[in-house]
């Protein structure tokens, strides 16, 4: 999978080191420190560092001196209130730094969330590893006929086999040429910053990604959604499991008010009221477009 033996040994050595601290500590998050959660065929997510916990959110909201100002029940109630009413600043007081190994095409989606600090592995200074994301057969799907950015049914038989063969062969060929271009055996060798342009988008890269909890929740709301692309969704789901242990009260509120909720437009609310009053409402009489009406019906049946 994603971690090499020497990387794993280095992480285990770091994990074995302990230091006393006076800062707020999340016991759930401590268990994740220096532990790599493997994703896809060569990827992983691991926690490098973090700041804050559920109590830090409440402390910031109340601008208090310490942790013992209110009961746990009151803290949970406050966090749910803050989440319910879309407050952001108290959640920004918690931060997490992740080390992520991911395919380049996933990284290009991920980087669109421009509210984090990122430092990526450099293909100018270092030689990229021969590691490519090759989907398993069940994740080879045709283009969706109803969504221009989605997938339809899985490919089968000879077509699926042919696509897998091409993905593997093209990746291998591109890397062979990359190695040949940068080689200095009997030639000058092309600069690494130029040779890397020949590599496909399924090659793996790595980065450190630091983000506050408010913006992380926004990332997870979009990328852990069932409609998100599978290859980024599995990373988001792995991060969800980490955040659940880090800030359990905040994550429970997020799961309830963001992941498990739906949003209605003003027209949607008006239609729902009419339907609850016993009126039969059609798309033509709803004031919604066909797309809006379809999404409305998907929620309410």
Automatic annotation (TrEMBL):
Binds 4 FAD per tetramer. Each FAD binding site is formed by three monomers. InterPro entries: Thymidylate_synthase_ThyX, Thymidylate_synthase_ThyX_sf. Pathway: Pyrimidine metabolism; dTTP biosynthesis. Its cofactor is FAD. It is an enzyme of class 2 (transferase). One of its GO terms (biological process) is dTMP biosynthetic process. FAD binds at residues 89, 112-114, 120, 212-214, 218. It catalyses: dUMP + (6R)-5,10-methylene-5,6,7,8-tetrahydrofolate + NADPH + H(+) = dTMP + (6S)-5,6,7,8-tetrahydrofolate + NADP(+). It holds the Pfam family Thy1. SUPFAM superfamilies: Thymidylate synthase-complementing protein Thy1. Homotetramer. NCBIfam families: thyX. PANTHER family: FLAVIN-DEPENDENT THYMIDYLATE SYNTHASE (PTHR34934:SF1). Catalyzes the reductive methylation of 2'-deoxyuridine-5'-monophosphate (dUMP) to 2'-deoxythymidine-5'-monophosphate (dTMP) while utilizing 5,10-methylenetetrahydrofolate (mTHF) as the methyl donor, and NADPH and FADH(2) as the reductant. This is Flavin-dependent thymidylate synthase.
């Amino acid at each position: 999978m994603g971690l090499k033996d020497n990387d794993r040994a280095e992480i285990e050595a770091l994990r074995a080191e302990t230091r006393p601290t006076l800062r707020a500590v999340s016991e759930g998050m401590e268990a994740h420190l220096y532990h790599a959660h493997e994703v896809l065929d060569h990827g992983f997510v691991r926690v490098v560092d973090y700041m804050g916990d559920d109590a830090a959110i409440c402390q910031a909201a109340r601008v208090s001196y310490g942790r013992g100002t209110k009961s746990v029940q009151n803290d949970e109630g406050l966090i749910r209130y803050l989440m319910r009413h879309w407050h952001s600043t108290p959640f920004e007081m918690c931060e997490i730094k992740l080390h992520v190994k991911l395919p380049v095409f996933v990284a290009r989606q991920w980087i669109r969330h421009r509210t984090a600090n990122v430092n990526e592995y450099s293909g100018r200074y270092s030689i990229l590893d021969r590691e490519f994301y090759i989907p398993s057969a069940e994740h080879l799907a045709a283009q969706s006929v109803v969504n221009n950015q989605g997938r339809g049914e899985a490919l089968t038989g000879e077509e699926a086999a042919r696509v897998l063969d091409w993905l593997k062969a093209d990746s291998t060929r591109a890397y062979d040429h990359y190695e040949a271009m940068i080689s200095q055996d009997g030639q000058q060798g092309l600069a690494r910053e130029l040779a890397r342009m020949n590599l496909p988008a399924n090659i793996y890269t790595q980065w450190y990604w630091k983000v506050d909890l408010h913006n992380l929740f926004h990332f997870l709301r979009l990328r852990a959604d069932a409609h998100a692309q599978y290859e980024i969704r599995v990373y988001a789901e792995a991060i969800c499991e980490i955040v659940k242990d880090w800030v359990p009260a905040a994550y429970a509120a997020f799961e309830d008010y963001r992941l498990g909720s739906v949003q209605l437009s003003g027209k949607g609310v008006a239609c729902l009221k009419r339907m609850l009053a016993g009126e039969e409402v059609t798309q033509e009489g709803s004031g919604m477009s066909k797309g809006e009406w379809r999404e409305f019906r998907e929620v309410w049946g």
